[in-house]
Structures are given as C-alpha cells and as structure tokens.
Specification:
Elements lengths: L1 H21 L4 H22 L5 H8 L12
C-alpha cells in the first residue's frame, strides 16, 4: 500500500510543477491532476477490497466444520 502512496506523492509534486509552468487552466495541468485523482481512487478501492483467505473460503463452503464455529461469551 505504501507504494501507491509514494506514487500519489510523486504525482502530486509533478502536478504542482506542471501547473506552475503551464498555468492552472492548461490542459496539461488538468491531465496531471486527473492522474492524481485516479491514483487516489485506486488507493481507496484497494483499502475497501479485502480478498478472502483460503480459510475464510473453506468456512463459507463448510460452516458446520468444527474449526469454523464461532462461540460467543
């Protein structure tokens, strides 16, 4: 996850530099900020999606198995 955060920081710096050089209303500036937004959306998506482990899949298929039972106090 830190790889995508590093990439976001890099793209943020690049977007600021592009906008300083070309102006805040330039198409280059808009494209640079679009790249930042795409990376942020991907990071958010990765935080939301948690793949199931093999054990979780097993318990979904075999809820009656002893090792899958849940006990409450």
């Amino acid at each position: 996850m830190s790889d995508i955060q590093d990439k976001i920081q890099q793209e943020l710096s690049e977007a600021r530099a592009v906008c300083d050089v070309n102006g805040s209303n330039s198409p280059e500036c808009a494209a640079a900020w679009d790249a930042v937004e795409e990376l942020q959306a991907e990071a958010s998506h990765q935080r939301q999606v948690k793949p199931k482990t093999s054990f979780e899949k097993y318990c979904d298929d075999n809820p009656e198995a002893a090792e899958c039972r849940l006990y409450e106090d």
